[in-house]
Amino acid sequence: MQTVVSADGTEIAYESRGNGRPIVLVHGIAGSKESWRTIPERLADDFRAVAMDRRGRGDSGDGDRYALQREVEDVQAVLDAVGDDPVLFGHSFGGLVALEAAADADIDSLLLYEPAVVVGEHPGGVQRAARMRDLLAAGDREQAVELFFRGFGGQELVDEMPIAAIAGIAETVVREHDVVVEYGVDEFDADVDAPARLVVGEASDDHVNRAVDAVADRLGADVVTLAETGHHGLETAPAQLEDAVRSFLD
Predict the structure, then answer these.
(1) How far apart are the first and last CA of the chain?
(2) pTM of whole model > 0.85?
(3) Which of 42, 88, 162, 222 could be disulfide-bonded to 242 (CB atoms 3.0-4.6 Å)?
(4) Domain extents for the chain?
(5) Which CATH fold would you assign to the domain 2-118+185-249?
(6) For the chain, which residues score pLDDT lower than 50?
């Protein structure tokens, strides 16, 4: 494990595997650098896969004042540490962070797997955020986390997630939910010079597909669909995901 110091002094941890072109991996709301465990081993022959812990997760520290910009600065610190012409790959909320970082970062390519961007109305988002904070204040951490996942993916997503384990980072889940609710697809700087590819799961909900298509349109990117899987292709479709990466970067 290695660490870098972000702009606000927070220590950000990352692990590297393989040799060659660096590809920085940014995990989602429910994850850590371990979420990418199936991908580095598949890319190690040709790439240096660098999986980071976002702030407040895993081995990384956490600052006093959270903001999306702090996350962008964390990614930039890791990019600066890994060498020239890095590829940036974000999943879910990590995709939103990577999208924001890509506007100013000196990267070779950008990959986004179902970035946590909402298109159009987000029914109940503000009310859900308030309810999640009430549950946290009452000490109902698991209920707060369950409410988050039910809001974005229904009971099916709740059933897929290790709610009890994620409850340990309930505060970070809630603050990132706030970012998603407040963020609009029209807000990001579409002036990204690097070529980009979006990835979406065939089984993902319509609102996810709308978001992926909207981001791809803004970036002038293509979209690759992973068959017979949804938001968790890192675990359920690693071979397809590897193909999506290699066909884009080779």
Answers:
(1) 28
(2) yes
(3) 42
(4) 2-118+185-249, 125-178
(5) Rossmann fold (3.40.50)
(6) none
